[in-house]
Amino acid sequence: MRASWFMGLLETFAFEPPPPGPGAWNSLAHMPTSRFAFAFGAPGDGRIYAAGGAISGAGTAVNERYNPSTNSWSTAASMLETHSNAATGTPGTNMFVAFGMVNGVRSTANRRYSPGANSWSAVASGATARTDVAGVSIGGMFHALGGFDGSSVRNSHHRYNPGGNAWSSLASMPTARRSAAAGAPGNGRFYVVGGSPLTTANDEYNPETNTWASRAPLPESTSNLAVGTPGNGRLYAVNVMSPGRTDEYNPATNMWRGVAHFPFGTGPRAASLGNGRFNVHCATGRHAEYMPGV
Residue 108 and residue 99: Cα distance in Å, rounded? Predict the structure, then answer.
């Protein structure tokens, strides 16, 4: 019910065309299956995968892949169970989907998708069942952050090592939250932004020292946002509370600036193919690619 309620709320927002700003969006082929709270990642085979999610409040196991060379979608192997509101990571050539709602129940499950074999497998589960967890990959590891355990919003931080198939607990986030987003812009650190309770928090994590630092806050509080990292040393936050608003963060200057807005709204998810751009899909199935400006 949460997903359908949230999508209904989003539909009440007025939506304006993207204002002028640095960079540009290019509309691409729509995702065939519209859904909310899906896993979204680019595991290194040159394609983007949208797995699981919720349709009208009910979980789904559908998995669809996007081929940028043909601007087309095809069906890939379904997930092992229905899975939504999970953390996603792509530390290498596989995609991992952890925690979230599995068959309608809050879970610690961790599932690995292998694009080469087009198959899913169960790997080591995480700690503490929770939903609305942020995920990010850096240094060949998959980090899962925050979430909701059914009674409280958490600041938990766990790292999954695919080589050892094991989780470890790391320094907790300064800001407890759910429905945040995270990205690694290429400076050896990652950033967790936004989340609920609604916040402008932007927390930087240094894997070498296992420490956190608060950085320049988002220009506007938001949750259920998307973060893109196209490889230019910047991080892009696509807002959902002000549908389509997109802001660029420069870690070197610790400053944000507004850029061309995402042309669609509702429940965005972002992934980068490492081609200097990033792709955003939203719950309505609409899909666009962002090309950074100067």
Answer: 5
